[in-house]
Predict the 3D structure of the following.
Amino acid sequence: MLPTPEPERQDATWLAGAEVAIVGLGLMGGSLAGALRGAGAAPRACRRVVGIVRRAETVAAAGPWVDTATADLAAVGTADVVILAVPPRTILQLLPIVAAQMRPGALLTDLGSTKSAIVEVMSSSPAGLLLAGGHPMCGKEAGGLAAADPQLYRGAPYLICPVPSRPAAAVAHTAALARALGAQPRVLDPATHDQLVAAISHVPYTGAVALVLAAAQLDAPTGGAIWELVAGGFRDTTRVAAGELDMWIDILLTNRAEVLAHLQRLTGVLTTLATALAAEDTAALGAALGAAQERRRRLFRA
Amino acid sequence: MLPTPEPERQDATWLAGAEVAIVGLGLMGGSLAGALRGAGAAPRACRRVVGIVRRAETVAAAGPWVDTATADLAAVGTADVVILAVPPRTILQLLPIVAAQMRPGALLTDLGSTKSAIVEVMSSSPAGLLLAGGHPMCGKEAGGLAAADPQLYRGAPYLICPVPSRPAAAVAHTAALARALGAQPRVLDPATHDQLVAAISHVPYTGAVALVLAAAQLDAPTGGAIWELVAGGFRDTTRVAAGELDMWIDILLTNRAEVLAHLQRLTGVLTTLATALAAEDTAALGAALGAAQERRRRLFRA
């Protein structure tokens, strides 16, 4: 089991009094803002939510989701918590700029889907800042503030990567934030994180893209007939291929080594399956398909 | 567009007076039986539904789904329609045995997920029988009569493969059967069928199996931590891997050439994606991911 930080009363108290600045109000940032301000039976979790968006035109659209919206990044200067809710390569660019403007003792964290590169940049932030990498394992294909939902985080694993030689309060505070969203905080190191999410998320996405593109090779030869046959199986196996492009390009590029390593594992298994099928080796085929079936049924009990 | 047979009054009339024997009462056969006997607002579609099961012990369980249940295959002798609702390799074994016992003018069809091998065996059935291959594109992971649902076929494409040099009434009658289930009949030849379902269903299944087995390689090294991270994306991309083993082994073995050909297309695309990622070729990567996103969003509008 991955360790879960013990909930401490002082972390919840700290959050209740905090001004939280969220940089980026897309699906993840907008949903986070809505959850912190309270939704349904859940009470407001912090003192103030400030949304920081890139363009002045989008400040108005952000209105209903935050206490204050601004296009001025300098607003991070008064925050007790700053959460970077932008794609991973933008996080890497913004980290030094934002860290330089924050007040000592404040917490800087992020929602990026890859962690090694981000935590490495975090490591060179000014002393006195609290720092922790974050990755809530939730989302959906539709992106943008229009798709935001304060319930999005509920029940999701919220992975937290400590930044070496930074105060442990950073992890405890980030865990309090995760709990306020209804998510389940779990702590692990960035290298393990990136290896595991490559297998659980990034390579499954790449596989879904490949399934769509391979099927598309039969589009012209069949006069489009192939798309009339798509059923529930294809819908589910390829759903993630519809996800936000900017985010996925950033994810693959910032987790390149682990994605490539796991793609090798995947093509290795595909080759093994193809070899068994070509040889009509029913025993080997049945053993492999049976192991996958058993594991999948045990994972989700459905 | 794949052709749809015109609905003819005489086909519906024929079905209304028919005794339908279903060989195999699992998920597909049981759901079919329930739909033919009428469910919800839908009226009964045929005169009599006979369920033929393998074991005498399961005759009782079949009771609520059919008008008569029996373990005696000779019951096909009085039927106007016989539907083989068993896995593909069992269909291949049963076809000559069942065909030899049927009365002239009756319709013999099946629900198998692969069609070339089955239609070839159908071709050597006794003259005077109506024959057509069938493949309703629906299902779910839970198998067996316990999971049966008379609504299962509603809205699904129901693919029909003509058997060369057999009367066209076989296709028209099978289309009437599909319509009685609420499905959408579409006609195509067995070779095209097998090529397309390899791309839309069989290789996506194989890919889901490979994703589960590749992730499982990280089980021991991470002390099982990998399974704590699984989120909605992994759940959906691997759902089909939980499907019924006997059916999937039969599907892959009876569509071997097309599955192997499409696995080559898939690994070709995966290699292209890996090459672009390894080279940090953002333009090539973005073009491929963007094409898949656009196609997927257009297909399902969600």
